[in-house]
Amino acid sequence: MVFAVGNMPAKAALPRSMHTHAGYARSVAGGSGKLGFNKAIAESTFCNKKVKTCHRKAPVVRAVIEKPLMETSTARSVSSSIAAVVLGGGAGSRLYPLTKQRAKPAVPIGGAYRLIDVPMSNCINSGISKIYILTQFNSTSLNRHLARTYNFGSGVRFGGDGFVEVLAATQTPTDKEWFQGTADAVRQYAWLFEDIKNRVVEDIVILSGDHLYRMDYMKFVEYHREQNADITVGCLPVDYERASDFGLMNIDDQGVVTKFAEKPKGKELDAMKVDTTVLGLDPEQAGKQPFIASMGIYVFKKSVLVDLLKKKYPGSNDFGGEIIPMAAAEGQKVIAYLFNDYWEDIGTIKSFFDANLALAQTPPKFEFYDPQSPIYTSPRFLPPAKIVDSSISDAIISHGAFLEECTVDNAIVGLRSRIGKNAVIRDAMLMGADYYESDQQRQALLDQGRLPIGVGDNSEITNTIVDKNARIGKNCKITNKEGLEESNQEGKGFYIRSGIVTILRNAEIKDGTEI
Q1: Residues 20, 32: contact at Cβ < 8 Å?
Q2: What is the pLDDT of residues 371-416, one digit of tens each?
Q3: What element of type H or E holds 241?
Q4: 3-state DSSP call for residue 112?
Q5: pLDDT at res. 11
Q6: Is the model's pLDDT at 42 over the cut of 50?
């Protein structure tokens, strides 16, 4: 049996079995029925099994109308007074080797997206159209993706003043240093905020390029303005178990931040308890989550930001650890804004791996598609995925993938992936490939004793991230059989961190290899 999956990455949540036509309907709609046709197709398929004859009723389709991004001239003028700065991050050493040849925000996620798509899409969905991205390390692929995906052209959609500009670390006659931290990166381009084209900008939203969440930044800014705050810090409610992993804040009964503590423990942790009902939690949830943690996203009054960076603290290089705590201690009005929804910091190999596999769960904690606030990415115009006689369970299958007589369970299968016969992919993430190889090219490589892109026949891959364009031969077994926590084997094409195997980009893993 051959079946094709539509242009969005397909999500399969069926038990392991041969797929029927009804299974096809569930795979396309992800089992959720959100697209309006899942139930109708399933009922029509099973109709003849229930009785010999039946009368079909016209299915009820409830359409979700996508709201226009900018509804009125008032909304447009409000958004024109806001600019966003997305921080491209440092060297991304905790995500290495995924950051060996790419910036952290350019790391692929969810089969068809990149991390940078999250803050960019949140900005667009919030009506914020003036966006700067600060980059420093391995920024080539990030720049390419931004240029292909977020080219606003003439700016007609946003009233003519929208833009996306990449600001790279650079040396000038007055500044010979690269970015020394989050605050220093913004400081080196602070002159832009005073430039004539930003004369109407009143507030600056500072964002990170390596978080996974969906948020309306306009509400964030509106709260900042209602409170007449100098700085507003996005924060999460957290429980005892996770509290020590974050920078925590204390607030008074008005939500004004009074104290900061970086990853406190013991008595210091107990001292950071707050009454989170002040920020809108109900008493039951507030009892379970008595701490608030910084999300690493901020809103600054433009005048305050420029003054802090250039005049008050010209030698301080970090927002969360230096600038904001010092500003609060010296009397600036720093307010906490509660975000009580899914949020994940994709800063380490383990958190990245776990967040990806969680996308394939049913129901997932986070979905990239939402009709009123979708996550955008580069339009690639790839064909639907093709799956031949395969067993698929709890998986996301991306555009252009080809799976033949294989088993995929709890996995992400990326763009243009090839999985051979009798291969088993379980608890794994395949990032896919940047290009196709034709059947003739694949055969020519095999004739030369080399390997084509993809996973070969009879191979087993578990607890593994396979980076782009990797070539895995036949009869390979990649499972971290020795249970190693850390092992640098870049010369052999793989790296183990936190017990998770990463097959390097462009690596070749020979037939019969066991890892």
Answers
A1: no
A2: 889 999 998 899 999 999 999 999 999 999 999 999 999 999 999 9
A3: helix 240-243
A4: coil
A5: 66
A6: no
SS3 annotation, 34-80: CCCCHHHHHHHHHHHHHCCCCCCCCCCCCCCCCCCCCCCHHHHHHHH
Q: Closest by alpha carbon to 193, among 219, 226, 165, 212?
A: 165
The token pair at 337 is 């804004």
Q: Which of 478, 352, 471 is closest to 426 using CA atoms?
A: 478
**Orientation angle between helical segments 140-149 and 117-125, nearest 10 degrees:** 30
Tokens for 28, please give them. 């396309």
Distance CA 245, CA 235 (A): 14
Measured between alpha carbons, how far is 114 from 118 in angstroms, rounded to an integer? 8
Whether the Cβ atoms of residue 484 and residue 501 lie closer than 8 Å to each other = no
The tokens describing 499, both together, are 């017990």
Please tell me the distance from the alpha carbon of residue 93 to that of residue 100, in angstroms, as a whole number: 9
Statement: residue 159 has pLDDT above 80 = no
**Mean pLDDT (the chain, rounded):** 84
Residue 438 one-letter amino acid: S
What pairing do the DSSP bridges indicate for beta strands 407-415 and 391-397?
A: parallel
- If you search the block for the tokens 């927002």, which residue do you land on? 319
What is the pTM (predicted TM-score) of this model?
0.83
Percent of the chain topping pLDDT 90 = 58
The one-letter amino acid at 131: I
- 498 and 348 in contact (C-beta within 8 Å)? yes
- The SS3 call for residue 10 is strand
